[in-house]
Specification:
Helix content: 40-55%
InterPro entries: ClpP/crotonase-like_dom_sf, Enoyl-CoA_hydra/iso, Enoyl-CoA_hydra_C
CATH class: Alpha Beta
Distance between the termini: 42 Å
Keywords: Isomerase
CATH architecture: Alpha-Beta Complex
CATH superfamily: 2-enoyl-CoA Hydratase, Chain A, domain 1
Protein name: Enoyl-CoA hydratase/isomerase
CATH topology: 2-enoyl-CoA Hydratase, Chain A, domain 1
Number of domains: 1
Number of helices: 10
GO molecular function: isomerase activity
Strand order of the largest sheet: 1-2-3-4-6-9
Largest sheet: 6 strands, mixed
Strand content: 15-25%
Shape: globular
Family: Belongs to the enoyl-CoA hydratase/isomerase family.
Radius of gyration: 17 Å
């Protein structure tokens, strides 16, 4: 495993920590593929009963590292989709421990998880339109699926941040806690699941996902088809340049 992802196992619980605090845990294609592989391997490992995903330092994950490794648009989308599919398909439960800002593709990472514990100071953000893109990582289905169309449009079109208390009230997360209580709450839930009936837990996840994630595959395919084109557009190049230069973008259209 690369240094971008830290892995530890204790009592049947695999904790995967996104370890790029210098980039607010934004990561690229290599780490995306690696994360998918870690989840798939954990699901096949009889000694792992639960996966917890979190971030090192102040952030959970702020999405794709736009200044990082180069990749083709198709490669980038396939890599992101791989970990969303891995989480949804895994028979073991996946817990997102959202310890700080969660933006872009990381919102899909969190919402695809089975349980989401969030610090009260953390927030969700869909910044895609601001750089000339559409929401991806399944968020075009996952976000409206939990908050409804109107709130989802506010997040997607206006970039509205959703902080912990609002996320809890709108059904986006399992629990919201003070940052200092987050570790203990996640550990308690993970331990309960690790000692629970494995088959019943797996079938419960499968049954609920069958009804609530029915649109996810179509969303991933649709997002990919559109995003591959947008990632090659002048508006995207301008959006990224403006963001990295900390200025207002001037879109062509």
């Amino acid at each position: 495993m690369s240094e971008d992802l830290l892995r530890s196992v204790d009592g049947g619980v695999l904790t995967v920590t996104i370890n790029r605090p210098q980039r607010m845990n934004a990561f690229g294609v290599g780490a995306s593929r690696e994360l998918a592989g870690v989840i798939n391997d954990a699901d096949a490992d009889p000694d792992v009963r639960v996966v917890v995903i979190t971030g090192e330092g102040k952030a959970f994950c702020t999405g794709a590292d736009l200044a990082g490794e180069p990749a083709s648009p198709q490669e980038a989308m396939d890599a992101v989709n791989s970990y969303i599919r891995a989480i949804a398909a895994a028979s073991i439960p996946v817990i997102a421990k959202v310890n700080g800002p969660c933006a872009g593709m990381a919102v899909g990472l969190a919402l695809a998880s089975d349980l989401i514990f969030m610090a009260d100071t953390a927030y969700f953000l869909l910044p895609f339109v601001g750089i000339g893109l559409i929401p991806d990582a399944g968020t075009s289905a996952l976000v409206p699926g939990v908050v409804g169309r109107t709130r989802a449009m506010g997040m997607a079109l206006l970039g509205n941040r959703v902080y912990g208390p609002e996320a809890l009230a709108s059904g986006m997360v399992t629990a919201v806690l003070p940052a200092q209580a987050l570790d203990d709450a996640v550990a308690a839930a993970a331990t309960q699941l690790a000692h629970g009936p494995k088959d019943a837990i797996a079938q419960t996840k499968r049954a609920i996902n069958a009804t609530t994630l029915a649109q996810l595959e179509d969303a991933l395919d649709r997002e990919t088809a559109v995003q591959v084109d947008l990632l090659q557009s002048d508006d995207y190049r301008e959006g990224v340049a403006a963001m990295l230069g900390k200025r207002r973008p001037e879109f062509a259209r």
